[in-house]
Specification:
Layout: H1 2-8, E1 15-19, E2 23-24, H2 29-40, E3 44-51, E4 66-68, E5 74-76, E6 79-80, E7 83-84, E8 95-97, E9 104-108, H3 109-115, H4 127-137, E10 142-152, H5 163-180, H6 186-206, H7 210-226
Parallel strand pairs: 3-10
Antiparallel strand pairs: 1-9, 2-10, 3-9, 4-5, 6-7, 8-10
């Protein structure tokens, strides 16, 4: 946020690009993103994201565009849980999505300013989903284009088996719902999610992953501390 604020004080830019340091780009990728967003009227857009190590396969963080189920669980075209599909062209259309991956995310400057950038309370994980949801709540749209692709290594901030990553994911998912889900019954949906989190904690306990059980407990405690904010 501070870096983009500094840039925008000196540059009159129509678009901003969030790009992870573990992303490998491909020829023509940036023009393709801009053209797709302009033609579709999107305020944010991602390319198809494939794995650096298995280059014909979609990568976990974003794949071919993100969605959300009625309980607030995130999933992607091209990924089901931790299983990634091979890219056979099955998602080779430009589509409006619920959220786009922050690994490679083009955002219109006025939209970024409208929502105030990324929520720093998230620190990492789901902060781009929060950004996209806030855009949607203001009547803007988010897309995924098949006109280009990039390769993402993934896990550069925190590895999948890191308890801190589990803490951030469980806590930030609750942050997401409380902040952005304005449908009636949000208290019950959050309670239901906490029950499901408890079930996940029980599974971790049975697997002997005590650090992950502690991560869930800490996530819920931190959520309660920050709930009023």
């Amino acid at each position: 946020n501070r870096g983009l604020d500094a840039l925008l004080s000196d540059w009159d830019a129509e678009w901003l690009l969030l790009l992870n340091s573990d992303v490998e780009v491909t020829p023509g990728w940036l023009d393709a993103l801009v053209n797709a967003a302009n033609e579709s009227g999107w305020s944010a857009v991602q390319p198809k994201i494939r794995s650096v190590e298995r280059r014909a396969e979609f990568e976990y963080a974003g794949a071919a565009g993100g969605y959300m189920d009625r309980h607030g669980f995130m999933f992607c075209a091209g990924r089901l849980f931790d299983q990634n599909e091979l890219d056979h062209g099955q998602y080779d259309t430009d589509r409006t999505v619920f959220w786009a991956s922050g690994a490679c995310l083009l955002v219109q400057t006025h939209a970024w300013r409208l929502v105030g950038g990324l929520d720093e309370d998230f620190f990492a994980h789901m902060e781009e989903i929060d950004l996209c949801w806030r855009l949607r709540n203001r009547g803007l749209t988010v897309g995924a284009t098949a006109r280009c692709h990039v390769y993402h290594l993934g896990g550069g901030t925190l590895q999948q088996e890191n308890p801190k990553k589990a803490f951030l994911n469980f806590r930030n998912n609750l942050f997401l719902l409380l902040k952005n889900d304005h449908r009636p019954g949000i208290r019950w949906r959050i309670l239901f999610r906490q029950v499901l989190d408890g079930a996940a904690g029980l599974r971790f306990l049975l697997e002997g992953k005590l650090a992950f059980v502690k991560s869930i407990l800490n996530a819920h405690a931190d959520f309660r501390r920050n709930r009023k904010k």
